[in-house]
Structures are given as structure tokens and as C-alpha cells.
UniProtKB/TrEMBL annotation, chains A, B, C, D:
Top-level EC class: isomerase
EC code(s) of this entry: 5.1.3.4
Gene Ontology terms, MF aspect: L-ribulose-phosphate 4-epimerase activity
Source species of the chain: Clostridium neuense
Keywords for this protein: Isomerase, Metal-binding, Zinc
Name assigned to this protein: L-ribulose-5-phosphate 4-epimerase
Cell membrane found in the keyword field: no
Annotated ranges, domain Class II aldolase/adducin N-terminal: 7-197
Reactions catalysed, as given in the entry: L-ribulose 5-phosphate = D-xylulose 5-phosphate
Matching CDD domains: Aldolase_II
Family: Belongs to the aldolase class II family. AraD/FucA subfamily.
NCBIfam families recorded: PRK08193.1, PRK12348.1
Named cofactor requirement(s): Zn(2+)
Length: 233, 233, 233, 233
């Protein structure tokens, strides 16, 4: 079942490795079929070198494995929270990519310093608060999803306007319209984090890009009058 | 038409990827045929993996597409300003390369710290001022070209003496005698920016290279009595 | 003799190169056969490009070469101390990998800043004290092993809970259940050190991950109720 | 003539590219035949991609081209000074490698922070003084060699004990017993400079490795009782 989506999710997981965002088994991508309400996710701790599309696990939104010979990623409950809350997203990614994880460990937002950032993220990329001891001891991975949703709500962020977040002392989650798009956003997130690190270590107290340039770049790619690309966005 | 130039511009765009200066569709190179007054530029938002020489777009200096099945790069008006102002340049490049973008985001010039810099850039590489709100809301990409020209004029810089500039909160533009030469300069720009970043973070307040060593190195490669290379410069 | 272990140790040495942890001959891996009390180690100063499984040297725990046409690694006495002290380890690695060596040169522990660290190391990764002049002038490589054991004891660390250490002004040692597992830990060590460097230069005085999140992540992979992976841990 | 040496020098130049120490034509290696007093050096500004062993240039110690269809490297006079002063060296390298050039631009020595450094360089790697205006306007490349010799003399350094130096605001020179050994030292130099940069930015005011550990590591590889490697050093 869902063979095409399995292939998409498999390819998206492999792309994480090819882009240098994960080593060993450190990451996971999922993709959802909104019609059936089922999603496909990487199995837990299976080596990327030997993994096949058929090893992907099909899960429903209550967390039941519907098909698959492996256990799904241990982060599956986080993906579920995001899919349930945001019908507009079709893929979710988690990594420990170098530069995004650096900001997650430092516990600070990635400031919007320029157009590279603004082309994809409409403002600072937030770092969610630390989970409480009760949350960690409870349904940890589900609470991770909850704190992501809490943060986006508090800041009035629509998920596709800033399609990534940092979880404090942990790492980034990214999402998108599809598994491939979510991985694309995860790659851009890490590049944007790297540029921000460089900028802040080169010149502490650098000011953010002004709001009219932020608007201009985000809108020229994503607004109703977008004119970047060939119009098939 | 202009098949040889299309191939040159295509190759120069691919070279950007090979040298690690761009990911995805983040960059563009153009080259001009001064005789016909037409230039060839990368299409907007087309994937480098599938792009062919024939996908390059031919544009005149008023911005009209003369030939091509794609829309030209959204930065086309910036290229036009540079070609109109500087008849001595034959190629223009825009990237978001890591180290040059770092300086653009910090909003500071790249100081000339050594002979690696002086071999190609005859002095600090300027960071142009922030565009005003009116400029961004108006013909944004054209105004980007205008602020580049304004900066070079204010600083009395001949474009081939310092063949690159940073646009604040955006990224670098570079140019050269040909598309390949412009890409070469974009690669050197990023290397020189990396060395400057390293130098400034290792030892803040490092002094610039003295003027006689700057002169010596620039002139031994580019002056009337240049003696570097095999004389076919 | 021990042909399978020789192949394992050889592969683990080559993996060090493939993962970018060593250049030239800068590193060594060994693996032990607990039944016979013999271990297999890389020869000293032999080029990785031409090295073959058969070039591995078999040594006993008194340091006598039992088989091999080459001298064993000059760090052999350090490996012996670790194998003697810790029956639970099956492989030992020494490298001068970039980020771990940075902390060793700075003489500071690698603080546990996040879950990437906690997934593999149950607390800060210690930097052992400087060796005394007498220790360096005496049986230097053996004393290096002794100072590692001394440090783990002082800090009440079980070797598989934090399977790596830094030796001041020198570099890292890592270990594991097998040669391959030791190399895995050496790779993770360097990645975790890189993230810590980035975090500390981005935001000095960053606080460590809190203890309940450290516990959670270490235990979800390594505790009695581990639920990461496919259960064949 | 000197066909074997030409091949050696050619291979050493290519190795510079393979190790990531140079881009484009930014570097040169030479090797000397002490019997004939002739040395072989890379031609000036010739592309590494198309260069052949036969393109190497044979030069005598007065700087006369004895054989070759190209002009020799513009840095040839620097190589000559070193070969004349130090009969024990057989190869010389110049690069603008990232980390060594960073220290050259900052104008500071590379401090000996650990055993990685001590294994190859018996103390801090010096940064030579700035050349005077008269020296730059005179025989610049020869004066570059003179300031290297002046620095080693002032500091009582035997060239094979610290086989590299930084020239202020310029970049590194390295040397060795052969062209291949000189390149090896240039690679280690850059790695050691990178580790020193990391150490100094992670913990400013880090102290140097103590002298007895420096002695131990240098001597275990290079002293009369060296015991690293297979004895064919």
C-alpha cells in the first residue's frame, strides 16, 4: 500500500544523507496521504546504507502501525502532532544538522539577517522552550510536538510561512508541502543557520534585515504576486 | 542565436555549483555579446541538474526577452544596469556564497588583509548601503544595480580593479571580462572573505596589508609590467 | 590466526579515514579476542593506502608481539591498559580528529549541551589531566592509559557510559564493544565536540542540558527499557 | 633531463590540489637535484587540469632557465634562496592554504598547543616580519626568501626541525627532504594551524604544550632513538 509515497519518503530520507544533514541513522522523514489519513515514516535505527523503500512503515494518526516489518521512528508521535494540527503540511523532517543544532543547543532563535533567510522563512526561526521534567517523563515525543505547536501559536506563525523550528537542547524539525519539500526546507534551514552563526561571530550585535526587505524577498517567492521561478510554484 | 555564448553562460552556471558557491537554484550568471548588445542569462528557478545550454535566455539591454522558452532570472535588471554602465565587463554573477554573504549580512567591507586578496582585488571589497524602502518597493532589482554603481563611483573604483561587491543584507555580485572570468572572481571573492573572517575572529583589530604590498601584488598580476603567468593574460 | 578479527580491525582503521577522522597514518584502532587474551592492532606508521588486513599485528596483554611482520602502533601500551582495566570493552581507537583535539588542546571537558551528546555520552566527556614530567619520561604510552583510568575512576564513570576521553594537549581515545563500535563512538565524539565548539563560540556561558533530558535520551537508547532502534541493540 | 625529478615535482604539485591546499594556480612546488645543482619547479600560472610532467621548468641556482617551454613560477627566487642556504632540504612548497594564511594575515606565530603539532614541528611555527617598502620594491621574491632565512637564524631554528614558516600578510612556505615530503609538511602545517585557530577561538589565552611533552613527541618521531613507524624513516 502507498507504494508511491513510500518511494517518496525513502528518497527524501536518502537525500538527507546526500546533503550532509545526517550521519548514521540520525534523522527521519515522513510523508502523509491526506485522503487515507495514513503516513509513511522511516523505521527506527535502520542503517541508511541497506534501507529500501519497502522498509518504510505505514502508520495512522493514532500511532498504530498499519503496515511494515520494522518499528517506526521513535519520533513518530512528534510527526503525528504536527500532521494533526496542520492540514496544510505533507511532510515532516527531523535532523541533528550541524548549524541548526548549534542554535538549538544555545537556546536562541535564528535571526533573519538577510535575503537568503527571507527567501524561505518569513521572520526569525524560533527556538521552542525547554520541556518540563513532567513533559520529558511523560509522553516525551508527543510533548515535543506539543511544544512546537505552542510556540507557533504564541508567535502567530503559520507553519508554511516559517517551515522549521528548533527544539531547545535537541535539534531542528522542518516541514513542507511534501517529503521532498520538507527536506529542501531542512537544507535551507541549516544553511541559513550557518550564515547567521558566521554573521554573529564576525560582528556581534548585527541588526536584523529590515522588515521591508524581508517582506519583499519572501513575497517575491511566496506571495500572491510571486515572480521568482517559472510560475509553476 | 548566440549558441557559443549560451554554452559559455551555461558552463559558467554549472561551475558555480561545482565550486560549491550555490545550492539548488541560488545563483545566476550572464554573459554579453557587445556587438549585438544582447546578453544571455540563466532562466529563473530552473534546477541545475536538468538545465541545458538551450534553456539559457537571450535578453536585450531594455530587458526584453529576445529568445528563450523560460523567464530570465529575476535578477536580470541588476545585470542590465551593470552592462550598461561598464562596457569593459563581459560577464556578471550573483550568488549567496557562504563567506561573502556573511560579510553582506554583517554589513561590512571585506578588508584587504593579504596578498591572496591583493592578487585579485585592488583594495577593500565594498559593502553597498542598504536600499531604502522606496527603492525596495519600486524597481527593486534595478535599484540593486544602481546602488552598486553608486558605491563604485563614490569610492572611485574601476570595476575591473575590484570585480565584486556586497549588497547589504543580501549577498555578493561579481563580474569579469567573460562569464568564466566572472565566476572565477566570485570563487576568489568567497575564498578571500573566508580568510578575512578567520583573520578577524582569530585576531580582532588586525591591520590591513600595507599599501606597497597591495600595489606590488595587484600590479605583478594586472599592471602594465605584469610578470605572473605566461604573458597571455 | 584471528583472521576474522584482523579483518574487523583493518576495516575499522579504514573507516577512520573514510569518516575524515585521520589523515596519513594519524590514528589506530585495535580489537581484542577475550577468549585468547590477544588483541589485534594497526602497525605503526604504515600508509593506509597500501595497508592490508594481513598487516595487522597480534599482541598479548603483556605487549609481546605474537604474530605480525610489522611493529605494532606506538600507542599499543595505552590500549593494553584499557583492555586490562575494562573487560567490557572490545575495541579501542586513538585519533587526532579536529574537534576533539581542539578541546584536548584547550584542556577542557566537552560539556553535554544537548540530545545529540546525550544519545551516546551520559554526561560531559572528560579531559584528563596533563601528564607529569616523570610520567612522560617514563613509560609514556602506558602512563597515558593510566591517566585515562585515573580520570574515569575519579569521576565515577563506567567506560561504556561515556565511551571516550580527551588526553590534555594530545587528543581523544574512544572505545566500544567492538572495533567498529569504537570507531562509531569516535565519529560521534568528534561531531559532538564540533557542536559544542559552535555552541560555546556562538553563546559563551551556555548552560548544559538539564539532567532529566540527559537521562531521558541516554536511557531511551541504552537503558533497560530502551525503545530506540529495532531491539537488537 | 631530470625526468624522474620532473615527475616527482609534478606529482607533488597535483597532491597540493588533491589535499585541498590550493585552488586554481595558487601554489608551487619545486625539487632539487643536489648533484647537478639544478632544480625543477612548476611553471607560472599554468592550469593544474592540463599541466603535464613535461611542463615543469628546470632552473639553476642563479635563476637561469636551463630547460622548459614555460616561464618558471614567479616565486622561483624565493625557492633559490632556500636551496642555497639550506643544503639539507630537497623540496620547497608555497601555498595560500586556508589556516596557515589566516595566521600569516593576522601576523602571529602558530603556537605549539599539542602533540599533533609536536609530532612534526619542534616549537612554534614563526611568522616572519613584514617586508619593508624597499624590499618589496626591490627584488621582492628574493627578499621574501631572505626574510625567511633571517627569521630562522634569529630564532635559532634548524630548517628540518620546523619545516615551515609564515610570511606576514602573504602565506606559508614549507620544505622537506623531497618535494613529496615538503607537501606532506605543508598539509600538516595547515591542519596544525586549523587546530590552533580552533583552540584560540574556543579558549583565548590557552597555554602552550609544556616543553617535556613537546620534546617527547618530536623525539619519538625524529630523534636518534625514534620509535614511531617501521624504522625506515
Amino acid at each position: 500500500m502507498l507504494e508511491a509515497l513510500k518511494k517518496e519518503v525513502f528518497d527524501a530520507n536518502i537525500e538527507l544523507v546526500n546533503k550532509g544533514l545526517v550521519i548514521y541513522t540520525w534523522g527521519n522523514v515522513s510523508g502523509i496521504d491526506r485522503e487515507s489519513g495514513l503516513f509513511v515514516i522511516k523505521p527506527s535505527g535502520v542503517d541508511y546504507d541497506t534501507m529500501k523503500p519497502d522498509d518504510m512503515v505505514v502508520v495512522d494518526l493514532e500511532g498504530n502501525v498499519v503496515e511494515g516489518h520494522y518499528k517506526p521512528s521513535s519520533d513518530t508521535p512528534t510527526h503525528i502532532v504536527l500532521y494533526k494540527e496542520y492540514p496544510e503540511i505533507g511532510g515532516v523532517v527531523h535532523t541533528h544538522s550541524d548549524w541548526a543544532t548549534t542554535f538549538a543547543q544555545a537556546g536562541i532563535d535564528i535571526p533573519a539577517f538577510g535575503t537568503t533567510h527571507a527567501d524561505y522563512f518569513y521572520g526569525d526561526i524560533p527556538c521552542a522552550r525547554e520541556l518540563t521534567e513532567a513533559e520529558v517523563h511523560g509522553e516525551y515525543e508527543k510533548e515535543t510536538g506539543n511544544v512546537i505547536v505552542e510556540t507557533l501559536k504564541q508567535r502567530n506563525i503559520k507553519p508554511l510561512d516559517i517551515p522549521a523550528i528548533l527544539v531547545k537542547n535537541h535539534g531542528p524539525f522542518a516541514w513542507g508541502k511534501s517529503p521532498a519539500n520538507a527536506v529542501y526546507n531542512a537544507v535551507v534551514l541549516d544553511k541559513v543557520a550557518q550564515l547567521a552563526y558566521n554573521t554573529m561571530t564576525l560582528k556581534p550585535n548585527t541588526e536584523r534585515v529590515n522588515s521591508y526587505l524581508l517582506d519583499k524577498h519572501y513575497m517575491r517567492k511566496h506571495g500572491p504576486n510571486a515572480y521568482y521561478g517559472q510560475g509553476s510554484k
